[in-house]
Amino acid sequence: MAYGALGVLGELLITAGVLVLAFLVWQLWWTDVEGNRAQAEVVRELPRVEVPTPAPSAPGGPLVASPRRDDPPVMAEVPHATTFATIQVPRWDGEPERPVSEGVDRATVLDVLGVGHYPGTAMPGGVGNLALAAHRTTFAKPFNRIAELREGDALVVRTATVDGGPGSDTWYVYRVTSWQVVRPSQTEVIAPVPDRPGESPTERFITLTTCHPMFSARERYVVHGVLDYWAPVADGTPAELLGDA
Amino acid sequence: MYAWLWRHLPGPAAVRVLVLAVLAVAVLAACFVWVFPAVAPYMPFNDTTVGE
């Protein structure tokens, strides 16, 4: 009898504890498993031209795209949740190529498609600020290793075919210039000229935003960069991705 | 609660343990597929964007 109500309460509390643990397992591990699988599938299915590879016997190894520093082609903005590019970061050795899709809401883009593009910011290669967001923990955590980035590191964006217009199937190689930790309300970091809202841009910036500290929504970790060069995918692979730059 | 459940399950102990194990797995699977994805957006972490 002494067991009675107190015993049931105890059992309920233990059950709740087990469920909380199960939630942690789901959030910290299972969303990565599912996310990595889903994002790899998105990249695999993405319509785009193949990178040319010379015959295995060809001297000189893979074809290196020669950098172009004239005005790059820029694609038009795409509809919400459309995947239009991928991003690769040589510094994050071992990380897979991640899809980049339009929009930054969690339910339709960040939780399921990896990296999101802030609507209204520049498209790859465009004058202004190519602003991207992604999870730093959970849901495949595309920007997990953002704090490892150093000045001069390459951020390689490769656009897909999308509508086949200007700016499709192009490499854009950006270089990291700076990083900062800001409050979530500081939208000036994704302004066309980062940190200078209202100014008209003349340069081609890139900005990555993610959460900071890890497992918290208190602040944002922000990395800025600027376009170094571009090249058509049909010309070869950027040297940065071949490990010799 | 669990004692009540145990008393009302049929069969020998081995069968009861098996039934309970299957039940536990079913509850966990339902959580992974429906409950946790529905709760996750309300958790106070994981926001990665600036603005709003």
UniProtKB/TrEMBL annotation, chain A:
UniProt KW Transmembrane helix keyword: yes
Catalytic residues of the enzyme: H135 (proton donor/acceptor), C211 (acyl-thioester intermediate)
Keywords, in A-Z order: Hydrolase, Membrane, Transmembrane, Transmembrane helix
Keyword field contains Transmembrane helix: yes
CDD domains noted in UniProt: Sortase_E (cd05830)
Record-linked InterPro entries: Sortase (IPR005754), Sortase_Class_E (IPR053465), Sortase_dom-sf (IPR023365), Sortase_E (IPR042003)
Membrane-spanning segments: 12-30
Cited Pfam families: Sortase (PF04203)
GO MF term (any one): hydrolase activity
Matching NCBIfam families: class_E_sortase (NF033747), sortase_fam (TIGR01076)
Name of this protein: Class E sortase
Organism: Cellulomonas uda
TrEMBL record, chain B:
Keywords, alphabetical: Membrane, Transmembrane, Transmembrane helix
PROSITE patterns tied to this protein: PROKAR_LIPOPROTEIN
TM annotation in the entry: 13-36
Organism domain of life: Bacteria
Name the record gives this protein: Uncharacterized protein
Species name: Cellulomonas uda
